[in-house]
Design a protein that fits this description.
331 residues, alpha/beta, TIM Barrel, two-stranded antiparallel sheet
């Protein structure tokens, strides 16, 4: 395992991290979570990701109980949660000052910690002024409740506004973004955010590196009955299934699988290693419901030397979807 700075921050996170989305509190109980977290920790993972919206807080509770069961020292791991979807009522959602504070304290209690290493605004809130959100997050940093705050799936414009507000009023600016990033979802990380890496020192904690399983090849012949696509509450993952766009992606997956086989690795290892080949990626969040699945994914690091510039060029040729760089205007 190697470690990368979280953007310009001094915090160093493992290049592979472990998250609770879809699994903890739904497919994974405390005992299974302890086994997964313990294995990840022993392999060098030092960042564990969560959100109040994951199974209505149960994912945080399961993770917190698992970490307590393992007895991990607080100074050896970083943990995150996110704020936006806390409940059905008007005071239990969004990025207003009250909900940000309530969700922070509730998350800390469920996770069993007295501060959060990373705290994310899970989505932009169009009903709350960005200045209000930035001030609330900055106050949590000042109070020692949060070490670093950031966003998830914000636009470059929204991030720029948040950064400008923070600089104007001498507040703590956002440190990191958590966007989806994989061989099929590249626009934000490789184009939209490019000006922000230097301007803000933006770090990225990317999610869905395997495109919700599509880049494992298991969907090449249809949707397996035991896939996350069929889990109650996650039917939206199947949106667009059967369209020409999805079929084109599956064809690319088949070609990528052939390339992966030629260099001696499964396609999901190739997809994971492709993500960390981007130096703008601070950490790749892995998800797993089974112990052997996590061990297998972590094993990709053992063959990273096979991802040569030539192989990366072949991947680009197959994917054929590199985003256009940001347009520059010369005087």
């Amino acid at each position: 395992m190697q470690y990368r700075r979280l953007g310009k921050a001094g915090l160093k996170v493992s290049e592979f991290s472990f998250g609770a989305w879809v699994t903890f509190g739904k497919q994974v109980d405390v005992d299974a979570a302890a086994k997964l977290i313990g294995t990840a920790y022993d392999k060098g993972v030092n960042f564990f990701d969560n959100a109040e919206g994951y199974e209505s807080g149960m994912a945080e509770q399961v993770m917190g109980d698992a970490i307590k069961k393992l007895g991990l020292r607080r100074d050896t791991y970083a943990v995150s949660t996110k704020v936006f979807w806390g409940g059905p009522g008007p005071l239990n959602r969004g990025l207003n000052r009250k909900h940000i504070f309530d969700a922070c304290h509730a998350g800390m209690k469920r996770l069993g910690v007295d501060y959060l290493d990373l705290y994310f605004c899970h989505r932009p809130d169009l009903d709350t002024p960005i200045e209000e959100t930035v001030r609330a997050m900055s106050d949590l940093v000042a109070h020692g409740k949060v070490m670093y705050w950031g966003t998830s799936e914000w636009t470059a414009q929204q991030l720029t506004e948040a950064y400008s507000v923070a600089r104007q009023y001498n507040l703590a600016p956002p440190t990191m973004e958590q966007p989806q990033y994989n061989l099929f979802e590249r626009q934000k990380v490789e184009s939209d955010y490019v000006p922000l890496y230097d301007l803000m020192g933006l770090g990225t904690t990317i999610w869905s590196p395997l495109a919700s399983g599509l880049l494992t090849g298991k969907y090449n012949d249809g949707i397996p009955a035991d896939s996350r696509y069929n889990l109650p509450g996650y039917e939206w993952l199947k949106d667009g299934w059967g369209t020409e766009r999805i079929q084109q992606r599956i064809e690319k997956v088949r070609k990528l699988a052939t390339l992966a086989s030629e260099i001696g690795m499964p396609i999901h290892h190739l997809a994971l290693l492709w993500c960390i080949a981007n130096p703008r990626v601070s950490t790749v969040i892995l998800g797993a419901s089974r112990h052997e699945q996590l061990v297998d994914n972590l094993g990709a690091l053992g063959v990273r030397d096979r991802m040569t510039p030539e192989v990366l060029a072949q991947i680009e040729q197959i994917a054929d979807n590199r985003p256009k760089p940001p347009q520059r205007y010369d005087d």
